[in-house]
Structures are given as structure tokens and as C-alpha cells.
Amino acid sequence: MSTAKWYVVHTYSGYENKVKANIDKTIENRHLEDQILEVRVPMQDVVELKNGVQKAAQRKMFPGYVLIHMVMNDDTWYVVRNTRGVTGFVGPGSKPVPLTDEEMEPLGIQKEDIVVDFEVGDTVSVISGAWADTVGVIQAINTQKQSVTINVELFGRETPVEIGFSDVKKM
């Protein structure tokens, strides 16, 4: 099996988040989690001045583009290319060109590998983010995404939540 690389997809302007949501839904429906690993709309923090008041906001780094970490094959190409709002991959003709590590570095997306000391079945505590101070049992570990899936109680039900390695610690 070939390794996953980052590709750039051109979208209609303003449809970046919709395209991301559509691709994420298709990945889930077609069980392509092992082939299309991540879909990103890179954002940057900016300070806007409106009516004399400074306000922190997030703005798209590349309007009209979405980054996808995937294994390129006929199935994944077809799924992404035929997603509503996608106009095509970036590259000559219909041949997508993956981004190099040098191109990915300034985006801050290439993460260094984190060595973890936990495994499926271990109890962990969430130390940051929306689920801070939550305790859960690891159901799955995704080393590609550098995340764990734990079950948390939400409205009286066990609900799976995906959390990054750096946001959990072993109990």
C-alpha cells in the first residue's frame, strides 16, 4: 500500500467548510478512514479593527482551497473529485501533485511523531480542550491522526470522542 500524502483541492470560493463536511461524511459512509486520513481548511489568527475595537478572528489561509491527507488511488480520486463544490485537484491536467514536506512545513500541519505510553483499554484523563477534566477509556488509537477515541458520557449516553495525543494523559 502506498503512503498518504497531502493534496490540494480547488473549491468554489466560500465553499471550503462545506466541501470539508461533505468529504468527511463520504469518508464515514464509504468507510475510507484508512485511505483519506484528514481534511483541513487551514486557518490563521488575525486581529481585526472594527469600530475602533480590536477583535481576534480566524481567517482562511487559502480561500478556495482545501488540503487533504490521503492515499491517492482511483477510488479516493473519484470520491474527492466528485464532491459537490470541488472544481478539481491542483496539478497539471487531471493528475494531482502532492505537496512536499518543505511546502507543508510553514503551514504547521506536519506533526512530529509523538510516542505514547497508552493502549486500548487504558483509562485516560483529558487535560485540555473542550473535554478537559473528562475521564474515559481508550477505544481506539489512530497513530496517523495522532489521536485516541474515548467514550465519554454525554446526556446519559456513552459517546465516542476523538482527542489528540497531546490532550490526554494516562491515569
Pick out its properties.
SH3 type barrels; 3 helices; alpha+beta; Alpha-Beta Plaits; 2 domains; four-stranded antiparallel beta sheet; five-stranded antiparallel beta sheet
Q: How many separate helices? A: 3
Mean pLDDT: 84
Strand content: 35-45%
How does the helix and strand content classify structurally? alpha+beta
Oligomerization state: single chain
CATH class of the largest domain: Alpha Beta
Describe this structure in words.
With 171 residues, the chain is an alpha+beta fold. The protein folds into two domains: 5-107, NusG, N-terminal domain (Alpha-Beta Plaits, 2-Layer Sandwich); 123-170, SH3 type barrels (Roll). It contains three helices and eleven strands. The strands form three sheets. Strands 10-9-8-7-11 form a five-stranded antiparallel beta sheet, with no helix packed on it. Strands 2-5-1-6 form a four-stranded antiparallel beta sheet, covered by helices on one side. A two-stranded antiparallel ribbon has the order 3-4. Strand 8 and strand 9 form a beta hairpin. The mean pLDDT is 84. Participates in transcription elongation, termination and antitermination. It comes from Sellimonas caecigallum. Residues 3-111 form the NusG-like N-terminal domain. This is Transcription termination/antitermination protein NusG. Keywords: Transcription, Transcription antitermination, Transcription regulation, Transcription termination.
What does the secondary structure layout of this molecule look like, with pairings?
Blueprint (H helix, E strand, L loop, with lengths): L4 E7 L4 H15 L5 E5 L2 E8 L2 E8 L4 E6 L3 H8 L4 E4 L11 H4 L18 E4 L8 E8 L4 E8 L2 E8 L3 E3 L1
Protein name: Transcription termination/antitermination protein NusG
Pfam families: NusG
Organism: Sellimonas caecigallum
